[in-house]
């Protein structure tokens, strides 16, 4: 056989192989339902999409060698419509909180299908992330003042569960001692400003966003309930069985997004603001170090209990009669494999309950900061990194000088002296000691108690800030 014929046969074989591969090529849809404005879900949606992280991990070898991926992103403002689309077969993945997640599992079960809760994205073992706010000029200062009042909340949300637990802790009957109405956050903002409701309970980020925008004042943080809460990722179980490697790829992208948030929370808080309109200082409360929630992708026992509690609470609310079981609904096989392929130790992460740490030096003295319940931070509009201070008095004195230069201040943060909860400085109460030192508190009642125990005086932000320079000078 001459060279020409051999070349022709080789070319023909190559073309036939290519044609066969094309004939068997598969297009795999990867349809993900996100909640962009629920900013603690950023690592499972917004950042993966905006930074094209999924492309790095989708498989292209073995059975996926000739696959074409049809990646679709669909954004929603809550979990319920994501569930509707997943059950209808229009979405493969969804991100949502524990209560909507339980409803997702129940809805799949009712339709004769199955979904799986595959990973946590952000959570709090105490319940921080949900909260209750009141109009800024309200005389209500704690949940104890809400008896007989009208409280709105998105029904069947994780915030609804928090509200019911908080009411039960007061010994009240939710049907007679308070008037609970359903209201979406978009409506609640206007209702708070107009004084049409006495309080509003909501999930991330509205208990912080409304105060930041001057619409409301926070009087209760979900951490006071000591009931774990989480947002995480779910998948259609049939999809996961067909394409387990794609599920792992999605979770590896979430791990990567989480790593980027750890490295530069200010940068990605600004990206979240650009995409969602939720201001970067609010985003940083969740995404930054010592944040309101822990960015934790592992299934800690507390988070498993949160899902189980959500299922049982929804039954009590008669929102579902599902036989859903948290032990089978939660499936950690995919996140464990994602950790393994990312060369991370899942068991070590599972055992780690610490918040994202803050490694910083005092902007005034240059010394390392050690007391994190006393730390304060200032974020200027013209700076890419936040300034850290060892205590609120230092930060407020610096703010006074900064204000004289005309520079714009994005936000100032302090931490609750008792719980370590991160707060906007303008929303906190302070106890000033005899030497001018300041301790911050979310609740006035806690500040009052601390002042009595330490012979200090309770002051609001304006008084604390105005006296900071003089106090430091007197030391």
TrEMBL record:
<feature type="signal peptide">
    <location>
        <begin position="1"/>
        <end position="25"/>
    </location>
</feature>
<dbReference type="Pfam" id="PF13379">
    <property type="entry name" value="NMT1_2"/>
</dbReference>
<protein>
    <recommendedName>
        <fullName>Putative aliphatic sulfonates-binding protein</fullName>
    </recommendedName>
</protein>
<keyword id="KW-0813">Transport</keyword>
<comment type="similarity">
    <text>Belongs to the bacterial solute-binding protein SsuA/TauA family.</text>
</comment>
<comment type="function">
    <text>Part of a binding-protein-dependent transport system for aliphatic sulfonates. Putative binding protein.</text>
</comment>
<keyword id="KW-0732">Signal</keyword>
């Amino acid at each position: 056989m001459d060279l020409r014929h051999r070349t022709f046969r080789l070319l023909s074989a190559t073309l036939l192989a290519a044609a066969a591969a094309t004939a068997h090529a598969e297009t795999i849809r990867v349809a993900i339902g996100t909640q962009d404005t629920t900013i603690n879900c950023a690592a499972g949606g917004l950042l993966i999409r905006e930074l094209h992280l999924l492309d790095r991990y989708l498989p292209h070898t073995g059975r996926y060698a000739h696959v074409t991926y049809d990646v679709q992103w669909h954004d929603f403002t809550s979990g319920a419509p994501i569930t509707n689309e997943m059950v209808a077969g229009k979405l493969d993945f969804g991100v949502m909180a524990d209560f909507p997640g339980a409803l997702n599992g129940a809805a799949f079960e009712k339709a004769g299908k199955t979904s799986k809760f595959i990973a946590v994205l952000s959570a709090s073992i105490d319940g921080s992330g949900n909260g209750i706010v009141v109009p800024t000029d309200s005389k209500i200062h704690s949940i104890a003042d809400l008896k007989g009042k009208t409280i709105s909340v998105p029904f069947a949300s994780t915030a609804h569960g928090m509200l019911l637990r908080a009411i039960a802790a007061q010994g009240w009957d939710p049907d007679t001692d308070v008037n609970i109405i359903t209201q979406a956050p978009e409506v609640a903002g206007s209702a708070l400003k107009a004084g049409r409701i006495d309080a509003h309970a909501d999930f991330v980020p509205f208990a912080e966003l409304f105060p930041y925008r001057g619409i409301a004042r926070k009087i209760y943080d979900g951490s006071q309930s000591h009931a774990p809460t989480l947002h995480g990722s779910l998948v259609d179980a049939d999809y996961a069985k067909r394409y387990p490697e794609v599920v792992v790829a999605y979770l590896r992208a979430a791990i990567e997004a989480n790593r980027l948030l750890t490295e530069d929370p200010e940068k990605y808080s600004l990206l979240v603001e650009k995409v969602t309109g939720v201001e970067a200082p609010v985003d940083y409360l969740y995404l930054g170090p010592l944040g309101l929630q822990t960015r934790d992708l592992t299934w800690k026992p507390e988070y498993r209990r949160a899902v189980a509690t959500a299922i049982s609470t929804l039954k009590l609310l008669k929102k579902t009669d599902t036989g859903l079981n948290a032990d089978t609904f939660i499936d950690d096989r995919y996140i464990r494999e994602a950790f393994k392929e990312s060369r991370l130790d899942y068991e070590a992460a599972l055992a780690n309950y610490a918040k994202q740490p803050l490694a910083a030096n005092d902007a005034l003295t240059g010394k390392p900061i050690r007391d994190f319940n006393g730390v304060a931070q200032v974020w200027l509009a013209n700076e890419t990194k936040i300034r850290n201070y060892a205590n609120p008095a230092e930060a407020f004195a610096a703010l006074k000088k900064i204000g004289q230069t005309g520079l714009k201040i994005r936000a100032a943060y302090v931490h609750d002296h008792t719980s370590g909860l991160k707060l906007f400085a303008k929303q906190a109460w302070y106890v000033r000691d005899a030497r001018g030192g300041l301790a911050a508190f979310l609740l006035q009642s806690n500040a009052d108690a601390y002042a009595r125990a330490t012979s200090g005086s309770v002051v609001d932000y304006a008084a604390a800030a105005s006296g900071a320079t003089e106090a430091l000078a007197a030391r």
